[in-house]
């Protein structure tokens, strides 16, 4: 990634309302496999899209539960990286900053981001597959998935699977921020999953500009005013330092 565009640095410094949308790529430098990278080890033979569905949980509840237990352990071992931390620094400098993530790894919160709009839930939370309510403790009855202490139904991770609706409050919050944003900073997403992938287009429709940070081009690239070919951990700190050199 060579020099940062001057007009982008100025727009960043001047912007009063910014929305950041992050995907699995911002956690790649924390050692988290991105969602579509070939899965490793035991999980290599499965496609994430075929595991992250209600049908998979229905047919193979133990397999799906253990896949999330594996990913939860990866997330717990991972540490937020400079990309996550730079977004905390950005939030301190921009009057109205909203962080929206597709990630379920809780790394933004661990980096210090205070308000994180979680479009796809959070892998550290568990809920009852029947009443949807949160469950923080359960007996180890020897079976997997564990059973809800309230009603006996299998427990599930508090994430949004393919074919499931996103949390209405998160969607409303994200859409409001996208409409109001002067800049939508899109970091580390393949821009394939909807409705999240539509958020930058909402900013554009309302006269805002899209900035993309990704080592690869994506379907969003043609819509971006700036598409910075680089890794989040390299580009984001440089953007922050250039826009706020103090
Ligand atoms: C819904 C939680 C309706 C679980 C996830 C056709 C067209 C449009 C939509 C659809 C369609 N067919 C089906 C749909 C709907 C479907 C969808 O979008 N499918 C896609 C695949 C076409 N969407 C849904 O089902 C959604 N629900 O529509 O419901 C509805 C409405 C009302 C009532 C009932 C139903 C639900 C979608 C949510 C699914 N859950 N995650 C879990 O994590 O296990 S999505 C999953 O993908 C992850 O959350 C992930 O975040 C998300 C997006 O992936 P990315 O984050 O982009 O990650 P990816 O690996 O793809 O890319 C990484 C990127 O990082 C790459 O570009 C790479 O270049 C870059 N990168 C790598 N290293 C770095 C980097 N970038 C920067 N720095 C680096 N170092």
Layout of helices and strands, plus pairs?
Blueprint: H1 6-14, E1 17-22, H2 48-51, H3 54-59, H4 61-77, H5 82-93, E2 96-101, H6 107-111, E3 116-118, E4 121-128, E5 155-159, H7 168-180, E6 183-187, H8 199-205, E7 209-213, E8 226-228, H9 232-243
Parallel strand pairs: 1-2, 1-6, 2-3, 6-7, 7-8
Antiparallel strand pairs: 4-5
Helix pairs in contact: 1-9, 5-9, 7-8
Count of β-strands: 8
The CATH architecture of the largest domain: 3-Layer(aba) Sandwich
CATH class assignment of the largest domain: Alpha Beta
Largest sheet: 6 strands, parallel
Helix count equals 9
Q: How are the strands ordered across the major sheet?
A: 3-2-1-6-7-8
H/E order of the elements? HEHHHHEHEEEHEHEEH
The total domain count is 2
The best one-word shape is: elongated
Average residue pLDDT = 95
Ligand species: ligand BV8
Radius of gyration: 19 Å
Structural class: alpha/beta
Question: What helical percentage do the residues reach?
Answer: 25-40%
**Quaternary state of the chains:** single chain
Percentage beta strand: 15-25%
Q: Spans of 5+ residues with little confidence (pLDDT < 50)? A: none
């Amino acid at each position: 990634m060579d020099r940062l565009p001057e007009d982008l640095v100025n727009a960043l410094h001047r912007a009063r309302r910014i929305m950041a949308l992050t995907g699995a790529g911002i956690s790649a430098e924390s050692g988290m496999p991105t969602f579509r990278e070939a899965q490793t080890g035991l999980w290599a033979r499965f496609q994430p899209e075929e595991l992250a569905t209600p049908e998979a949980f229905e047919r193979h509840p133990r397999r799906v539960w253990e896949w999330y237990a594996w990913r939860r352990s990866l997330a717990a071992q991972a540490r937020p990286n400079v990309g996550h931390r730079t977004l905390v620094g950005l939030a301190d400098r921009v009057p109205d900053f909203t962080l929206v993530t597709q990630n379920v790894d809780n790394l933004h919160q661990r980096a210090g981001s205070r308000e994180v709009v979680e479009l796809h839930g959070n892998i550290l939370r568990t809920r009852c597959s029947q009443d949807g309510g949160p469950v923080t403790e359960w007996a180890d009855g020897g079976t997997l998935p564990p059973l809800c202490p309230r009603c006996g139904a299998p427990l599930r991770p508090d994430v949004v699977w393919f074919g499931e609706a996103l949390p209405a409050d998160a969607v409303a919050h994200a859409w409001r921020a996208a409409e109001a944003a002067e800049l939508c900073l899109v970091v580390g997403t393949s821009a394939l999953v909807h409705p999240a992938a539509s958020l930058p287009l909402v900013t554009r429709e309302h006269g805002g500009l899209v900035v993309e940070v990704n080592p690869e081009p994506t379907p969003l690239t043609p819509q971006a005013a700036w598409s910075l070919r680089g890794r989040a951990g390299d580009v984001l700190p440089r953007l922050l330092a250039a826009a706020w050199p103090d």
